[in-house]
């Protein structure tokens, strides 16, 4: 069963704009992670936020976590054409640290 | 360079012909995992391994086998491939249970005719 569900499924923005992507999940988590996948390539880890953290930053990325609402958001500021990719949230659940991925969000950044 | 290497990258084969997809990591990671990625279904975990000689089923293990005889290698075996195993496969590794960001290989695209 899908633990993380991303929203929207697809997002198209102009270069320089901010992109906000959301992820909702169903059960308690150890941590939540965001990954990027460029076309035809493997996933690349972007950022990890633990269940006791509320916000994290990494360069142009900002991730928030609201455990009461079981949701997370990924904000990419000042987007670039190179940010065009699919983005996945993944939840780390349980004792075996099983990562469960959502179906992904396709982000297109127009030059 | 830290990396996860999968081979082959592409394979077209026929139903029933046993095949192995190799995965090797050079980061001394304890945790390794196999996923398949299908349109509309996202990534689903096939098998994972917490350490040498320790493997366990993920969400979709049917039709697959794995082994972990050495820390660096985690091959995925399809004993009798079928067309529904046509997919894009990824191997991933991470340092251990407490440090979870996973490093992914570039993927293996399998087509079973």
Give a nutshell description of this structure.
The complex is a heterodimer of chains A (111) and B (113). Chain A has 111 residues and is mainly beta.
* Net shape of chain B: globular
Remind me, CATH topology of chain A? Immunoglobulin-like
| Beta-strand residue percentage of chain A | over 45%
CATH superfamily membership of chain A, which one? Immunoglobulins
Shape field of chain A: globular
CATH class of chain A: Mainly Beta
How much strand content do the residues of chain B show? over 45%
Number of strands of chain B: 11
Mean pLDDT of chain A: 91
The assigned structural class of chain B equals mainly beta
Task: Return residue spans of chain A where pLDDT drops below 50 for at least 5 consecutive residues.
Answer: none
Work out the largest interface and the residue count of each chain. A-B, 23 and 26 residues
Could you give the distance between the termini of chain A? 37 Å
Q: If helices are DSSP runs of H or I spanning 4 or more residues, what is the number of helices of chain A?
A: 0
**Which ranges of chain B are low-confidence, i.e. pLDDT below 50, for 5 or more consecutive residues?**
none
Task: Describe the protein's architecture and organization.
The complex is a heterodimer of chains A (111) and B (113). With 111 residues, chain A is an all-beta fold. Chain A has strands at 5-7, 10-14, 19-24, 31-37, 43-50, 55-58, 61-66, 71-76, 85-93, 98-101, 105-110. In chain A, strands 2, 4, 5, 9, 10 and 11 form a six-stranded mixed beta sheet that branches. Chain A has a five-stranded antiparallel beta sheet with strand order 1-3-8-7-6, with no helix packed on it. In chain A, a hairpin with a 4-residue loop joins strand 7 and strand 8. Chain B is an all-beta fold. Chain B has no helices and eleven strands. Chain B has strands at residues 4-7, 10-13, 19-25, 31-38, 42-51, 54-57, 65-66, 76-78, 87-94, 103-104, 108-112. In chain B, the strands form two sheets. In chain B, strands 2, 4, 5, 6, 9, 10 and 11 form a seven-stranded mixed beta sheet that branches. Classes of the chains: A mainly beta (111), B mainly beta (113).
């Amino acid at each position: 069963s899908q633990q993380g569900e991303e929203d929207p499924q697809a997002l198209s923005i102009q270069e320089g704009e901010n992109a906000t992507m959301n992820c909702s999940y169903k059960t308690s988590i150890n941590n939540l992670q965001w990954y990027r996948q460029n076309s035809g390539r493997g996933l690349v880890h972007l950022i990890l936020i633990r269940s006791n953290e509320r916000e994290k930053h990494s360069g142009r990325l900002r991730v928030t976590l609201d455990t009461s609402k079981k949701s997370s958001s990924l904000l990419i500021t000042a987007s670039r054409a190179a940010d065009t990719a699919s983005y996945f949230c993944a939840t780390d659940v349980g004792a075996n640290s099983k990562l469960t991925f959502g179906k992904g969000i396709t982000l297109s950044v127009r030059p | 360079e830290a990396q996860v290497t999968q081979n082959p990258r592409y394979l077209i084969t026929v139903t029933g012909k046993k095949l192995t997809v190799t995965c090797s990591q050079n980061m001394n990671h304890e945790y390794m995992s196999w996923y398949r990625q299908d349109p509309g279904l996202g990534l689903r975990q096939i098998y994972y391994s917490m350490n040498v000689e320790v493997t366990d089923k993920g969400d979709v293990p049917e039709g697959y086998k794995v082994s972990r005889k050495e820390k660096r290698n985690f091959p995925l075996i399809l004993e009798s491939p079928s067309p529904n195993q046509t997919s894009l496969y990824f191997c991933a590794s991470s340092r251990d249970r407490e440090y979870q960001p996973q490093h992914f290989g570039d993927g293996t695209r399998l087509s079973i005719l």
